[in-house]
Amino acid sequence: MTYSELSNLIFEKKSYLCVGLDTDPRKLPRHLLTEPDPVFAFNKAIIDATADLAVAYKPNIAFYEAQGPRGWESLQKTLDYIPANCFTIADAKRGDIGNTSDLYARTFFDPTAAGLSFDSVTVAPYMGRDSVLPFLAYEGKWIILLALTSNSGSADFQRQQVGDQELFEMVIDTAHTWAGPDKLMFVVGATQADELSRIREIAPDNFLLVPGVGAQGGSLEEVSRRGLTASGGLLVNASRSILYASDGIDFADRARIEAKALQEEMAKHLANITKF
Ligand SMILES: O=C(O)c1cc(=O)[nH]c(=O)n1[C@@H]1O[C@H](COP(=O)(O)O)[C@@H](O)[C@H]1O
């Protein structure tokens, strides 16, 4: 999906909602446990209930890898089931020396090499340029680089002063030399909304993946006020608050209610934006 296709999708669907598929087998509604693939049955129901409200889906790979080969199969089926008009994010937070990153990139981008076919993958910047470049070699694919994460530990390194910048600002500035906004997004936690205006000064055109509304308590209103751009420019993720709104037979209906509340608020914020 290209930059303008993603932007158009946001304005067409009046949404910048990313539904996080952090599907924990221990939290599945009991009635699904007799299904041949309970994780996929759950994801399928969540996707059916939210596909018109969401512009993106983000399976967190840890939840699938922790299930062994079965989890990988559930992930593949889930990815195949996500409609074509939704952006897909492999939330894997990868990055290693070049030849290893090359294999990580194949894992998420190259179905001809037995990998998956995600639109994007989350990447950790810690190992630097040569750890990131292999992901950028894929035409039409995106990387989403961790910049200022939502957790309290983000203060340990990302907020440290390096010269006249904080480390996360240096990550953003340096990453601009690796790729343009047509291939590069940044992760900024919703719990860091205070920093979004500053981040928009150094990353005015990049899409930002913003997790942390819902269960982590970030404010959609503040994120939208500081982060929205004329291209939309945001993908705001919620996982647990949507997936586990109910653990009963009504789980998909309740997930839809949660997703709809976020989408309706997003529609209001988008109405104030003049599209590029
Ligand atoms: O890269 C991410 O998606 C991510 C970055 C970050 O800073 N904080 C963060 O919570 N995430 C992910 O976003 C999701 C948040 O889930 P909920 O807190 O349940 O909405 C999880 O999959 C996290 O791994």
UniProtKB/TrEMBL annotation:
InterPro entries from the UniProt entry: Aldolase_TIM, OMPdecase_type-2, OMPdeCOase_dom, RibuloseP-bd_barrel
Enzyme Commission designation: 4.1.1.23
Keyword Lyase appears in the UniProt entry: yes
Every Orotidine 5'-phosphate decarboxylase domain range: 16-255
SMART domains associated with the record: OMPdecase
Gene Ontology BP annotations: 'de novo' pyrimidine nucleobase biosynthetic process; 'de novo' UMP biosynthetic process
Enzyme class, broadest EC rank: lyase
Pathway membership, UniProt: Pyrimidine metabolism; UMP biosynthesis via de novo pathway; UMP from orotate: step 2/2
Recorded GO MF terms: orotidine-5'-phosphate decarboxylase activity
CDD domains assigned to the protein according to its UniProt record, in alphabetical order: OMP_decarboxylase_like (cd04725)
Pfam family, one: OMPdecase
Keywords: Decarboxylase, Lyase, Pyrimidine biosynthesis
Catalytic reaction(s) noted: orotidine 5'-phosphate + H(+) = UMP + CO2
PANTHER family found in the cross-reference section: OROTIDINE 5'-PHOSPHATE DECARBOXYLASE
Family the UniProt entry places it in: Belongs to the OMP decarboxylase family. Type 2 subfamily.
Entry-linked NCBIfam families: pyrF_sub2
Protein name (Swiss-Prot/TrEMBL): Orotidine-5'-phosphate decarboxylase
Source organism per UniProt: Spirosoma arboris
Gene field: pyrF
